[in-house]
Automatic annotation (TrEMBL):
The lineage of its organism: Bacteria, Bacillati, Bacillota, Dethiobacteria, Dethiobacterales. PROSITE patterns: GNAT. GO terms for molecular function: N-acetyltransferase activity. Residues 134-281 form the N-acetyltransferase domain. Keywords: Transferase. It comes from the Bacteria. It comes from Dethiobacter alkaliphilus AHT 1. It holds the Pfam family Acetyltransf_1. This is GCN5-related N-acetyltransferase.
Amino acid sequence: MLKNHDQRRSPYTIRRDGEGYRSVLLADPYNSRMKLMSHDGSTRLSAEALLKGAKSLGYGKAIAYIRNEERPAFKDAFVEEGKIPGFFNGVDAYCMSAYLDSTRKKPRDSEKADKIISMALAKEKAGGKINPKFSFRRATAADSMSLARLYYSVFGDSYPTPLSDPGFVQDAMQSGTVFWLATDGDTLCGAASLDTDREMRNAEVTDCAVDPAYRGQGLLADLVVQLEDVGKELGLSCLYSLSRALLPGINIVLSAAGYEYYGRLVNNCRICGGYEDMNIWQKFISG
């Protein structure tokens, strides 16, 4: 049943201004995590503010994407889980995590996840042929309800962001997220999005969902390929995606589309009732 999402689960911004530093933190109650979004001044003090903020709210994880020269400030309390090449307008980002809940740092099934990565990397690259049975286009505000229905049918209410709320979907569009649709006549059968950062010239390929009745027809691969074209039109430099580590399909699709594997974020977010490890994939799409 579609409904307006509980505002208490929505991420919100916290600003910390202290002597020698200034930082912007994103508190994410649903996923029990806090992320350092930006900072000025002392990197060490910003790292400490991130940890203190996460602890004060009882969160299980603290996250920061940082530049190479900032890594020493995080080395004591954080672990490096991977990187996203080109994330900062061509400069690599290193994905640092601190686990404030000891149970949160244990991967769900590393052996299975590693086998999926090996299988994905062994697949041949896709040829780029789009299934002619379906039509593809950019979503508009008028599609918010049908998108929310699709996401609810696939994920229920258990997704890192409340995509089963049409109001949230519409707000995301207004904030710059590009939703790309696959349709069969008037039926919405699949969708994915680009969560763009125009200043840093990157975007996350995310919110991938295919109606169960339409699976096995290459729709997800088609959506990923077309979002790359959208990214190029927007003048972006690189795309990245965080894929569920224990699902072969999306990892195979990303590898076949030319993405490279760069690490794994352990128990990073809640999907379908529990925390999921997320694989990091990245692809440069322009110079």
